[in-house]
Design brief:
Layout (H helix, E strand, L loop, with lengths): L6 E5 L14 E4 L16 H11 L4 E9 L2 E9 H17 L7 E5 L4 H12 L3 E5 L5 H11 L3 E4 L4 H5 L11 E4 L5 H9 L3 E3 L1 H7 L15 E7 L7 E6 H17 L9 E4 L6 H12 L3 E4 L7 H8 L3 E4 L1 H16 L3 H19 L4 H4 L1 H14 L6 E4 L6 H10 L3 E8 L4 E5 L19 E5 L14 E7 L11 H7 E2 L2 E10 L5 E6 L3 E3 L5 E3 H8 L5 E7 L7 E7 L1 H10 L6 H6 L1 H17 L8 E6 L19 H21 L4
Parallel strand pairs: 3-13, 5-6, 5-7, 7-8, 8-9, 12-13, 14-15, 15-16, 26-27
Antiparallel strand pairs: 1-2, 3-4, 10-11, 16-17, 18-19, 19-21, 20-21, 21-22, 23-24, 25-26
Helix pairs in contact: 1-9, 2-3, 2-7, 8-9, 12-14, 12-15
Length: 663
């Protein structure tokens, strides 16, 4: 057995051999010491997840939306599992009546809603591939996904119909039927039908399925249930093939984990659905809740009203990305700092006492009940009053935010890590383990994990502090990239998925993500950025001689250091009556605005997404060079060295961005 508290060793380390890097020991969670948990008997597919809950909990409240009365949001109005099942059957029959057979591709485009889940379950029922069309992507990517996946029927949020129409006539090659989650405007109907595409309102589509009956096909574990496209990497989006087995195995693993730490889910749990269902994180969490016959309430789609929706729904589990938790943290700290001296003093004393008590090993609810009652109860009520688990994923959560929320929320705050290719949750930190702050915890008990050395980056999986590329094996792993066997072979080797992220094992068996093997990283909102691709694009801007683009998972935007073209900058200065030599021009705020404007113009011409545009720039008249160790002998950028060299400048650029008034 390994020395790490929450891991067991299942395979020995391998030294470097035949040109292959060394590999550290293979570990799995201590909660899987007797083997990986098996799914519930009979639960072989996503359809079984829903079907079995309908049979067991027909009258449980399943999906809820806030009632709007005279333009004001009221209480949540619910439909039971049996009521949703009846709607799913109607939608499934209607889909089949449109000529879509098992194995067909069904697109879903829009924000989370009851109709989204109903459409997804209809896909599960009839063995269709559910293909989410990202709400945050532009028409070009949506058109690419429709064409690449050969989507024949698309369910669309009413307000997204104009966006979908932008993909025509290209998409009309594949799409034969469009279903609005609401109504269809007469001019939209005319435009769609001119292309030979059938279009239905939600109510009309339900009627279409009322008097029809199609036999449900047999579903197997290996069947693909969804193609989930990942965004923001180099080139076109990649279609990740997720099987039924991946999702039911993930559910079994998460259940084992929660049971092992005495936080098992039940039919009484309530979840707020607001993170995009088009991403794997929210999709699997909702499948998990459905498997327990629990309740899912939907937000109204406005982040400014999120806390109000939380207050009305009173969820027991709250999932978030770091940007949302950062907002909550900022709001709470601002309230504290604007309070009276006495209130600030009371809060700080209570915080220090409870934090110290938790670090000594006391559970959060036992660390200081008096502080909870007198000081932190308001925070708890602000999150509805019933939240017991807060789960953060998609990007790293800053340690100070995690620590703060662990103390003041009166709930467990757990940070997780996973990818679409690993069916989301692969690691998650554990309740009451304060030493896991800043880590993603140990593996979930349904995967094996090892670290593979990365010699080029000086990461050694066999050192006393093991570091290397995180590799994952198990039934949750994806079935490959759709129509891209070449890319699949690059990352799926001998059953191991190579994540591209570099991790470091901690003494207790938790993992800390410390780097990215390739020059692709996530911003704070969870979007991937392919930095070399962006540098190639921004390098086309006329004032740019060379550019280094920087971002990280704790920031929501990109900044850059530019070696400007001396000729271009001096021409601009002459035309605009700006005096000074080249060095002073590089320091001139107007020159920075000019270069930033040209970068933005070039980015928009190349149809970059908003998060891919540069928000602040520093002009350096001295070229990146080998002498300062900023370039390799073959003139490739040394990114860690560039960051070290420009760290203060980077920090100041991010400060300037946060100080700018929002648009």
């Amino acid at each position: 057995m390994a020395q790490r508290k929450y891991l067991i060793e299942v395979e020995k380390a391998k030294e470097a051999k035949d040109g292959k890097p060394s590999v550290g020991p293979v570990y799995r969670s201590i909660f899987a010491k007797d083997g990986f948990p098996a799914p519930i008997p009979g639960m072989d597919s996503c359809w079984d997840v829903f079907r079995m809950s309908v049979e067991k909990y027909p009258n449980n409240l399943m999906l809820g939306n806030r009632e709007i009365v005279n333009g004001k949001a009221g209480k949540y109005v619910w439909k039971t599992y049996k009521q949703i099942y009846d709607l799913v059957i109607k939608v499934g029959n209607a889909i089949r009546s449109c000529g879509v057979e098992p194995g067909g591709k069904c697109g879903i485009y829009g924000a989370n809603s009851s109709e989204w889940i109903i459409s997804m379950e209809a896909c599960n029922a009839h063995g269709l591939y559910c293909v989410p069309l990202y709400d945050t992507l532009g028409a070009n990517a949506v058109e690419y996904i429709i064409s690449h996946a050969e989507v024949s029927i698309a369910f669309v949020e009413e307000k997204k119909i104009p966006e979908l129409l932008k993909t025509f006539p290209g998409s009309a090659t594949y799409i034969r039927t469009i279903v609005s989650f609401g109504k269809v405007a007469p001019e939209q109907r005319e435009a769609i039908e001119k292309l030979g595409v059938a279009v239905y309102s939600w109510e009309d589509f339900l009627k279409l399925g009322e008097n029809k009956e199609y036999e449900l096909p047999v579903k197997t574990k290996s069947d693909i249930c969804t193609i989930m496209y990942t965004s923001g990497t180099t080139g076109d989006p990649k279609g990740v093939l997720v099987s039924n087995e991946s999702i039911v195995s993930l559910i079994a693993g998460v259940n084992r984990l929660l049971e092992s730490v005495n936080e098992a889910l039940s039919a009484k749990d309530v979840f707020l659905s607001y993170l995009p269902l088009a991403h794997i994180f929210d999709r699997v969490i909702e499948e998990l809740f459905i498997s327990h016959g629990a309740s899912i309430g939907f937000w109204r789609g406005d982040v400014k009203l999120l806390l109000e929706d939380i207050g009305e729904l009173k969820p027991t589990v709250f999932c978030a990305v770091p940007r949302v938790l950062d907002r909550i943290y900022a709001g709470l700290t601002q309230k504290v700092s604007s309070g009276s001296f006495l209130k600030q003093k009371l809060f700080n004393i209570a915080y220090s006492y409870k934090f110290s008590s938790m670090k000594k090993g006391h559970a959060h609810d036992e660390a200081s009940p008096l502080c909870d009652k007198i000081v932190f109860e308001k925070v708890k009520q602000g999150l509805g009053g019933k939240v017991r688990l807060i789960l953060s994923g998609a990007a790293p959560l800053a340690s100070h935010v995690e620590a703060f929320l662990r103390v003041v929320s009166c709930a467990y705050v757990l940070q997780g890590y996973g990818l679409t290719e690993t069916c989301a949750g692969t690691f998650v930190s554990l309740p009451n383990e304060m030493q896991m702050l800043g880590t993603v915890g140990p593996p979930v008990p349904n995967v094996d994990v090892c670290l593979e050395s990365v010699p080029d980056m000086n990461y050694d999986a066999l050192s006393s502090t093991p570091r290397g590329e995180v590799c994952v094996r198990g039934k949750v792993i994806f079935s490959g990239y759709y129509k891209r066997e070449d890319l699949t072979k690059e990352v799926l080797i001998d059953g191991w998925f190579h994540t591209g992220d570099v991790g470091e094992w901690q003494p207790d068996g938790s993992l800390k993500i410390i780097d990215r093997k390739k020059n692709i990283f996530k911003l704070a909102q969870g979007e991937y950025v392919a930095v070399e691709n962006l540098e190639n694009i921004f390098g086309l801007a006329s004032p740019v001689e060379s550019i280094w683009v920087y971002g990280n998972s704790f920031e929501s935007c990109l900044v850059a250091v530019v070696n400007p073209s001396q000729k271009a900058l001096e021409n601009w200065a002459q035309e605009n009556g700006v005096s000074g030599d080249f060095k002073s021009l590089c320091e001139n705020p107007k020159a920075k605005e000019y270069v930033l404007g040209e970068l933005t113009k070039t980015g928009k011409e190349k149809k970059l997404k908003g998060f891919e545009l540069i928000k602040a720039v520093h002009l350096d008249p001295v070229q990146f060079d080998i002498e300062r160790d900023l370039l390799t002998p073959t003139y490739k950028k040394k990114r860690p060295q560039l960051l070290k060299h420009y760290q203060n400048i980077i920090d100041n650029m991010y400060k300037s961005v946060t100080m700018k008034p929002s648009a």
